Input
Amino acid sequence: MARPKKQFQQLLEEIDSTPWGPAEQALVAQAVTLAQEIGDDRLEYQARMRQTASANMGGATDVMLNSFAWCLARHDADPTRFPADIDNGGADLMWQFKWMASALRSSPAFSQDQITAVLDDMEAHYRQAGLGMSGVLTARFEDAWDAGRTEDAERLRVQLEATPRDEHSHCDACSRSQVAGFFVDTDRDAEAIRLVEEMIEGGFSCGEEPEHALSRVLLPYLRADRFDEAKTAHLRSYRLAKDNPDNLTIVANNIVFCAVSGNEARALSLVERHLGWLAHDGLNVDAHFTALGAFAFALDRVSAAGHGATPVRGADAAGLVPFFGEHDGVWSAAELAAASWAAAERIGAEFDARDGGDAHADRLRRLRGLADTGFDVPIRSDAFVEPVSAAFPADADAWFDRVVELADYGAEAETMAALPHAFGVTDAEKQARLHSVRVAVLVAGERLEEARAVLPERIAALRVAGDDAQADLEERLQLATFGDAAAEAVAALDRELADDAALPPRSRGDLAISRASLHLKTEEYDAALDVAERAHRAFAEADDARHVHATSLLAIFALLQSERLERALGHLDRLLAEENLGAGHRARALEIRARIRGGQGDFAAGATDADETCRLLAALGADGALAATHMLAGALWEDAGDADKAVTRYRTAAHLVGREGGDLSGIDFRLARAMLSAGDAAEAAELFGDVLRREEEAEVPEGSRAMTVMMLARALAASGEFGQAVGAFGYGAELFGAADEGPDQAMALSEQAKILARFEEHDDAIELLENAAEIVRRSPDAVGALSEVLHNLAQAYAGQQDERAFALFDEVAALATQHEAGWLLADVTDSRARAFASLGRVDEAVAAALTAADGFLTLGDAGAAGGSELFAARVLAGNERAEDAFAIYRTVLEHGAEIPPLRQVAALELGDALEALGRVAEAAEARAIAEA
Output
């Protein structure tokens, strides 16, 4: 048995080092099974103690109750062999007792007598073990509060407050959170907020804290008109809670907040995201009650905002039928709101029947009472996207126009879907055109047999329309004029093209454009252009503007493929100036020009073209291309520096892709990045977290995941979550290391170090930077990363007055000189000046600072130059060399003429220095500059 027991011990070690979650739960289950196979009760006790805690954290109430009961029975029978504390650093058996009464209270399937019996048994065990009563009082307080026995709960709260804390008391985070929740329920908002803010300021945390506490005071913050704090608390609470189904109540509180704060779209998104959690833990019925009430309330607000008909994704899952009942088709927001209220009322009635009161009914009344309450706390993570749909054509002729425009753009799927509606046209030429479109789309999709089968209908339609010449031509060539690239088809096309003089102009044009298209496919661009010109003349002779425009687009493609960009752009501009250019051709031309303008750096103009393309495609119903075009628009607006516009375009793209069940990770990454640029850092962090979760589940390669983690870390830092940002940068470094991407790993460590240094953790920061330097030196070609890491390490050394900084400054300066990086050279020279100053080497500091300023000025960066000069002046003024400083201050005023903040600071400091020397009039003149 030695080998299985060794395996068991290894399992326990792995369990104790694995974070809560599915992986840890699987290990625990494996340990229990292995212990049973070994047949050793003591080993099983070790595993089941861990299983109780695991199930509590994971919301597996049935597993938790069974595991605890098994352990308690063994402990009661032989406390020596089965001790209350297994010394694994986790909750001991008496602590776990606190979870049991709460678990029983969470389901109306357990009677009040059963709950009381557990509480009494808990107290007896505590007394027998000689433990303090804090844990017991806490459990009795929770029971009274949840049952609606408010007076008993208040009495127990006061008693608990007077009871000495012991090792089985709730931790500082949990006790404050619990009492804060009670204060909110008993209309003591200010006291609740005080407790939670004490908790946050003290840095207290636990398994579900601070996210639970923050969710409890969301409405109190709103009622106190503290909207910024409410928004920050919501974003932090939800981000911490959103990945654990056991946090359903916390998420429910956040959903109610969204609904009352004017964020109905976000509320709907959260409802959709967490509906499935209802089926997670069948015994946590009280959480179901809270969530159903929140869902109902939020969906009512969605309906009130005019979106009651919006489908609620995921509501038709089989696991939700026990809550909402059977339903035909998708649930709308309004329908699901009614079903959620009904389910919440049914569950609440079961609880109240058990408890002999109306506590749950009262909670629903209070929730409904918020119906007319509203606050304005904008959160830009979600927005209702108006349905993108084209007007339904009125008749067959309108459908004909739609088909032609869709085909002109190249929207093949939508073209085929629209064709059946258009075949009802009575005009013979239109009928022939429709048959042509159908054959062309089939050939483009390599469905040649289907194309051959319907070609006779096209030829017959041509004859009905009186175009026998074209009919004869297509009868001879079969699919050659529709894009068939087979050798015999191309040869036949060439023979006809060589002897086309007797054909009508339109047929000559058809032959030429067909051959030009084949030249384009085989990358014979000059030949394509030559034959396209021939097609253009023929179509112009036939007065066929639509085919003239099609030929122009083909020529533009050939010019682009052969890298004749300016000629292509000229053709595009002329084509788009045509008043009779159809919507399909216009959309394609605009899309091409948008990409060209983006490539040339004219991002705003390109984005404007992309926006117009989106408008045209939406009007045509070309839904398949809309998401990609909105992505293009978003990317161009992002590059143009207009993050707000990028956000709206990316969000529309996400809506379109999500509607079809597509992969949102790439779009959401871009959306989160744009949100971060727009200043919505907390919302961006939430979305980056979602993207990372999907990437982890999909086992995306480490390097790609690392990029997402880095953006998440930056968003966390920008939103003030520095502790989490440090962890994220560290995780990013690990992933880059696993991907063997040393320079990026070093940059991640460098970012981690910057945050540590910000909070005076200089030794740890330097250790990280030294590690980063060692890593990045292995990649000398990564000059950007190498110079930045070494520069950061040098600055860190300088901050500790460590003269090792100067050798690193020299190394960075050499890199800057070698690679003609003038700004970096000036910047590292400025850093050297500050290092000299910290060591009291005044003349060297001033000289280096002024050298840096000259370097910045040479590059046209007056702001950076002024910063270096200002530093030099301060060093002189601080070392009793005011006269020398005055000249430099005046230089700063000169260089900062177009930089008011810099000019103002310099003027005020100059005034102070002059006044210190008794030169009051001059000081007044300097200050007047600042006031001006």
The mean pLDDT is 94. The first helix runs from residue 2 to 16.
